[in-house]
DNA sequence: TTGCATAACTTGTATATACAAGTTATGATA
DNA sequence: TATCATAACTTGTATATACAAGTTATGCAA
């Protein structure tokens, strides 16, 4: 079986993306969708809940599901978006170069952020990203070697996430992120085209797999003028 | 009736917050919880799904629900958190002062961001916030007067969200946000204690009610060293 | 002891039913 | 015509059942 509610979500999400159903319009009612997809109402409701969570629709008791204005802003949409996905959605020239990919053993501070034993084999990866020919993003990654033993510079220059999910079948599940602004240090200034900027937007994130193992720690430094973060959030309370 | 799944969520969330159940431990199984709360498994599952969404637990097929490490970082946790809530969780001295609260009619640019008719009555609000005696946040709000007719400087100095939700019974439902870094202008420098900083982190957000009406537009400028954004995100794809 | 099938758990998906709660259009009544 | 109750929709909550899929411990067999 192939997850009906996911399939229904995909169909409806695409119809909204392609504006087959326009913003402000109502989706067909749950009963109609139940008929259309030859399923049960609960299954339809699961699909609709996903749409709601991802900002496609707003459900209104008694009325129906209204299609929301789409963010034309072609950006991160919070969540876990890899740089490659991000770059694809921006129609700019993007270039990634690997500064360093080395195999080390966890110690002290490294070991602490990855919450692993002293001496655990890890990858230490540094990459620089160019947008329109300017070096504006500097990424440092720490990952457990055990889970991505065959990592190479070529893979790192493409997309780590693709490699993990499609090649290795690992399921990235959730992440914690922190965004702050910090002074650029000497190394930052050496790597990036800082112009007259003295500060960087720093995104630190810890990425976890389905089984809750902390797998990757990333520090991503962005030149302030090239940084933008877009978010859709529902009030949970 | 009083929404059982919400009640179950509240109980379990509190047990996790107070570390009655600690990180790394498993929750009781769905069947056990079903018995404990004298309900059905589906209802328990709805509660667990909420916990999962909000970063309290990770569900593992075949194993159970693991309690996740809690963010000790006492900060925004994405979502829609009002400044008052935020301030409460930080044990710093916080002070809000209203710079301006005036009643206007929408025109040109104002009208555009609020997506309303020319001439619609709106509130224009400007506030400055001090942390530990330093002026570090500058907020500008536009809101539809129709929905909050009795707004006063006193209310604005406290919490607009409390007023809207508790006094007026309005349901804030979702928001779109954008975070960028911009140069501070003359007005910013006049209002805030900028020190040697030249830039500000600007959070622009559009806040919507349950019926999808755009109700408030906010521009919140933060001195870079006092800005921090923390996020928990699940990979949806 | 070791290895392996299996049983007994766990969560995931799909379905059906019932009623509550909110919205809207209908139509009878004044 | 105008008003209002109501019927006919909509989504929300709660329950029950069945089976699929993943994990773990049991215990038999080699």
From TrEMBL, chains A, B:
<keyword id="KW-0678">Repressor</keyword>
<feature type="domain" description="HTH gntR-type">
    <location>
        <begin position="2"/>
        <end position="70"/>
    </location>
</feature>
<keyword id="KW-0238">DNA-binding</keyword>
<dbReference type="Pfam" id="PF07702">
    <property type="entry name" value="UTRA"/>
</dbReference>
<dbReference type="GO" id="GO:0003700">
    <property type="term" value="F:DNA-binding transcription factor activity"/>
</dbReference>
<dbReference type="InterPro" id="IPR050679">
    <property type="entry name" value="Bact_HTH_transcr_reg"/>
</dbReference>
<dbReference type="GO" id="GO:0003677">
    <property type="term" value="F:DNA binding"/>
</dbReference>
<protein>
    <recommendedName>
        <fullName>Trehalose operon repressor</fullName>
    </recommendedName>
</protein>
<dbReference type="InterPro" id="IPR036390">
    <property type="entry name" value="WH_DNA-bd_sf"/>
</dbReference>
<dbReference type="InterPro" id="IPR012770">
    <property type="entry name" value="TreR"/>
</dbReference>
<keyword id="KW-0804">Transcription</keyword>
<dbReference type="GO" id="GO:0045892">
    <property type="term" value="P:negative regulation of DNA-templated transcription"/>
</dbReference>
<dbReference type="InterPro" id="IPR036388">
    <property type="entry name" value="WH-like_DNA-bd_sf"/>
</dbReference>
<dbReference type="InterPro" id="IPR028978">
    <property type="entry name" value="Chorismate_lyase_/UTRA_dom_sf"/>
</dbReference>
<dbReference type="Pfam" id="PF00392">
    <property type="entry name" value="GntR"/>
</dbReference>
<dbReference type="InterPro" id="IPR000524">
    <property type="entry name" value="Tscrpt_reg_HTH_GntR"/>
</dbReference>
<dbReference type="InterPro" id="IPR011663">
    <property type="entry name" value="UTRA"/>
</dbReference>
<keyword id="KW-0805">Transcription regulation</keyword>
